[in-house]
Amino acid sequence: MNRKWVGSLLIVILLGIGGWMFFNSFYNSGGQYDTDSKEGISILEVDAQEAGERPIKTFDLTAQATEWDIGEEKKVNAWTYNGTVPGEALRVTEDDFVRVHLKNELDVPVTIHWHGVILPNKMDGVPGLTQDAVQPGESFTYEFIANDPGTYWYHSHQHSAVQVDKGLYGSFVIEKKEPEYERDEFFLLDEWATGSDSQNSLNMGGMRQGHMSGDGEMDTKQLYNTFTVNGKIGKDIEPLVMEKGETARLRFVNAGYQQHQLVFPEGSMKVIANDAGEVTGEKGSSQVVEIAPGERIDVAYTKQGEETEVIAENPVVENAEDMKIPVVSKENGDIQNSIPVSSSSDIADGTSYGSEELLFETTPEADVTYDMDLSMGMTMGEGMSFQINDQTFPETPPIRVEEGNIVKVHITNSGMMNHPMHLHGHRFQVASKNGTAYGNPIVKDLIHVKPGEEYVVYFEANNKGEWLFHCHDNNHADLGMVTVVDYQGVYSPFNIEEQLRSTN
Predict the structure, then answer these.
(1) Mean pLDDT throughout 114-136?
(2) Distance from C-alpha of 342 to C-alpha of 265, rounded to nearest angstrom
(3) Three-point CA angle 170, 189, 341, nearest 5°
(4) Tell me, what's the pLDDT at 215?
(5) With a threshold of 0.85, does the pTM exceed it?
(6) What is the bridge-based pairing of β-strands 139-145 and 428-433?
(7) What is the pLDDT of residues 36-47, one digit of tens each?
(8) Domain Plastocyanin-like, which positions (predicted)?
(9) From CA 81, how far away is CA 405, in angstroms rounded?
(10) What's the chain's average pLDDT?
């Protein structure tokens, strides 16, 4: 097996049931989210954005099949934007008008979702909901204003459990007009299944063992056996060249489905941003940063000495030796991948530090309250599923809002696996964890909810459209863990059932 495989399909194969049966039902069954309603105005007519006098930044991205060399004599059959994994790095400046021409040279439909970017609904890249997928040989142009500086990334949202898994993703940065750091680097973390010994099946015993140990990663750990940084493994990871005392902004994105814990040299790093938002003034100092699937964390890293240093996966994690970023001096280019990595109990995650700019100065009074229970179950005739309120999409109850509503979402994970829950088109404020309020709330668009945990988040319904709220372990989303923030008075003109028929 020489490429990453589809976790959802493997789960269903384990149970002797065809994965495509569920995929068909995912899109075709009637549900509480009514895709046929055409009341109000179309999302295509909402919040149109024009360039005006702004600078226009134009990019061309071509989706194409590529044999990608990840290093150490390992190759994968990848799907790429512009022939590389990750795809072309896109950088713009705040207030730029962004225009991206997508051409599809694959034999399957694709899209681009601009993960974390606040933009008009029709540019969100969700097939069957905000656009028709771009068919083989066809093109589509995305246009939006880069309003909010920060770290983002782009990826396909067409059957993303497969397409992101195969490499259809890239980095996207909206820079401030006056950058704070002269050095600014981007690192995309990912997992792959490679070689004949790849972990390509699940077993119920392992899942039970994982549950007993409190490890919510048992599915991804069985599916993937190779870690990459910017599409490369181990000794083939491009070194970061820095001199002693030099400081750089390092932007990290987890494009995979397994959480990663990066260990930094002691005293070298401070967390400065999370999900495109700056954290509180003192900044966050730690030695280990945990990054959930789909999450973005920025750090200010200062090289401590003249010798080679390393930023690496926590050594207690299996396959950690794959994920080591060497930091070398120009005078000392020796890349010593044998440098020991010591882990620390001081781990910073996505909610460790509060945000500089809050959505709400005090806990707001909610107009809409939604209880979101995350669980795992069996669906009659379809096999294993990942559920919201005991239902799989599109049967999951939508979050129905009117423009201007304050929305409270109480998220509880009653299952045995981790669920990084991502909201499109909005940011939310995390108010509490396990019933305890945060002294310094944090504003995010993704919250990593582990087994037994519960969070309360608030957001304002201030971006009309039809927006996904889903697990960013896309294997879980593909098996049902998706709902929709459904604005009253607007509708999607696209048809999810027709979308599926066009892909088969």
Answers:
(1) 97
(2) 9
(3) 150
(4) 73
(5) yes
(6) unpaired
(7) 567 789 999 998
(8) 64-178, 212-304, 385-486
(9) 38
(10) 86
Q: What is the distance between the alpha carbons of residues 239 and 242, in angstroms, rounded to a whole number?
A: 9
Return the structure tokens found at 181: 């750091």
Q: Are strands 436-444 and 428-433 parallel, antiparallel or unpaired?
A: antiparallel
Packing angle between helix 496-503 and helix 19-28, nearest 10 degrees? 150
Burial class (CB in 10 A: 0-12, 13-18, 19+), 282: exposed
H helix or E strand, kind and range, residue 23: helix 19-28
Strands 269-274, 277-278: pairing is antiparallel
Q: What is the CATH number of domain 8-37+358-503?
A: 2.60.40.420
Phi, psi of 323, rounded to the nearest 5 degrees:
-110, 80
DSSP 294: T
Domain ranges of the chain: 8-37+358-503, 47-175, 190-348
Spatial contact of 3 and 166, defined as CB atoms under 8 Å apart = yes
Burial class for 203, CB neighbours closer than 10 Å (0-12, 13-18, 19+): exposed
Separation between Cα atoms, residue 131 and residue 215, nearest integer Å: 37
Compute the Cα dihedral for 125, 126, 131, 133 and give only its sign: positive
Per-residue pLDDT of 332-360, as tens digits, reads 666 655 565 666 667 889 999 999 999 99
Chain Cα centroid distance, residue 479:
17
**Contact partners, residue 116, CB within 8 Å, separation at least 6:** 150, 151, 152, 153, 275, 276, 296, 445, 446
Q: Do 190-348 and 8-37+358-503 have the same topology in CATH?
A: yes
User: Which fold, 47-175?
Assistant: Immunoglobulin-like (2.60.40)
Check residue 398 and report its DSSP letter.
Answer: P
Q: What's domain 190-348's superfamily in CATH?
A: Cupredoxins -  blue copper proteins (2.60.40.420)
How many CA atoms, within 13 angstroms, populate the side-chain half-sphere of residue 453?
17
CB 187 within 8 A of CB 251: yes
Neighbour-count burial of 46, counting CB atoms closer than 10 A to its CB (0-12 exposed, 13-18 middle, 19+ buried): middle
Residue located via tokens 């001096």: 329
Distance CA 418, CA 257 (A): 10
pLDDT tens track for 301-321: 999 999 999 999 999 898 999
Residue 86, preceding peptide bond in cis (omega within 30° of 0)? yes
Q: How far apart are CA 393 and CA 86, in angstroms?
A: 30
CA–CA distance, 31 with 480 (Å, rounded to integer): 12
